[in-house]
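Hi F.,

I've been meaning to write this up properly since the lab meeting, where we talked about keeping a consistent format for the predictions we share between groups. The idea is simple: the sequence comes first, exactly as it goes in, then the structure tokens exactly as they come out, then a line or two of notes. No screenshots and no reformatting. I'm using this chain as the first example so we have something concrete to point to.
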Amino acid sequence: MRNPHGFTLIEVMVTIAIVGILAAIAIPQYTDYVTRSRLVEAQSKLSDTRVRLEQFFVNNRTYVGFTCTQAAVGNENFGITCTTQTANTFTITATGTNKMTGFSFTLDDLNQKTSAIAAAGWSNPSPNNCWVSRKPNIC
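Output, unedited:
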């Protein structure tokens, strides 16, 4: 009688089934984690732009004339625009590009934050007074 070498078909199939179940759980969790890490870029850019706008206002006593547009370049996931800019008010918008298309966040001169999300599996918070940072619509 020969000594058996290797694995039986049943052992291989059970191993593949276990790996498949683990992958079905781990891959979506990892994808959400990566998306959440990209959302920080928008929040950081909005906050940085707000600080620069306030510095401009201190120097000029108006928000008009501040160059706000920052297009997303390379691997960046959000571009910044000022959609409303008057002498005493502003609204900054971060719009998702590349893998973050469907995400949009705003910040105004009163520090009011809003989210506009059209990405699959994500939704807007209720009430919409914050930046969404994770599913399901948690700020």
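Notes:
The beta strands are 78-85, 90-96, 103-108, 113-117.
The CA atoms of residues 51 and 57 lie 10 Å apart.

If this format works for you, I'll send the rest the same way.

G.
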